[in-house]
Amino acid sequence: MEKLRVLFVCTHNSARSQMAEGLLRAMAGDRYEVYSAGTEPRGVHPLAVRVMQELGIDLSGHHSKHVDTYRDVPMDYVVTVCDSAREHCPYVPARRRNLHQSFPDPSAVEGDEPTRLEAFRHVRDQIRAWLEETFVRQVP
């Protein structure tokens, strides 16, 4: 059976879309080819790498990509994971469905490192729960 292709998009492709890519690949990589991109890529956030490593998922080899990288790659699902990307992303058609699920930006949280790490963990866990419900238990 051919894997379904999923593209996660957020503004900077630094945290939310990167975590979604890593999580879905780890949770259901046997069913999905998973990608991520941004409208203004800026590099993978080190705290995203760190909180994903806590789950045994290595994002250290990931890099930010512009959404245009995948313009000619047919995607079954295109998922915007932040409101800004939904508003500013050029339309990328999905063969099956375009989805939007906004998650808070953990990189916008200020404070000491423990506070910021907790914000990244919280968003990571929100994304994981949504992916479980949306892509792992059922196909949208």
Topology:
Blueprint: E1 4-10, H1 16-28, E2 32-38, H2 46-53, E3 75-80, H3 83-88, E4 94-100, H4 113-136
Parallel strand pairs: 1-2, 1-3, 3-4
Helix pairs in contact: 1-4, 2-4
Structural write-up:
The protein is of the alpha/beta class and 140 residues long. It has a single domain, classed as Rossmann fold (3-Layer(aba) Sandwich). The chain is built from four helices and four strands; from the N terminus they run βαβαβαβα. It has helices at residues 16-28, 46-53, 83-88, 113-136, and strands at residues 4-10, 32-38, 75-80, 94-100. The protein has a four-stranded parallel beta sheet with strand order 2-1-3-4. Helix 2 (46-53) crosses helix 4 (113-136). The longest helix is centred in the C-terminal third of the chain and has 24 residues, at 113-136. The relative contact order is 0.22. The model has no long low-confidence stretch (mean pLDDT 92).
Summary, kept brief:
The chain has 140 residues and is α/β, with parallel strands linked by helices. It has helices at residues 16-28, 46-53, 83-88, 113-136; strands at residues 4-10, 32-38, 75-80, 94-100. It has 4 helices and 4 strands, in the order E-H-E-H-E-H-E-H.
CATH architecture: 3-Layer(aba) Sandwich
Number of helices: 4
| Shape field | globular
Average of pLDDT: 92
Terminal-residue CA separation: 17 Å
Unreliable residue stretches: none
Strand order of the largest sheet: 2-1-3-4
Topology as H/E string? Answer: EHEHEHEH
What's the helical proportion of residues? 25-40%
> Which CATH top level class fits?
Alpha Beta
The CATH superfamily title: Response regulator
Largest sheet: 4 strands, parallel
Structural class: alpha/beta
User: Please, how many domains?
Assistant: 1
Q: Determine Rg (CA atoms, Å).
A: 14 Å
CATH topology: Rossmann fold
Number of beta strands: 4
What proportion strand? 15-25%
GO biological process, one term: response to arsenic-containing substance
Pfam family, one: LMWPc
Keywords: Arsenical resistance
InterPro entries: Ptyr_pPase, Ptyr_pPase_sf
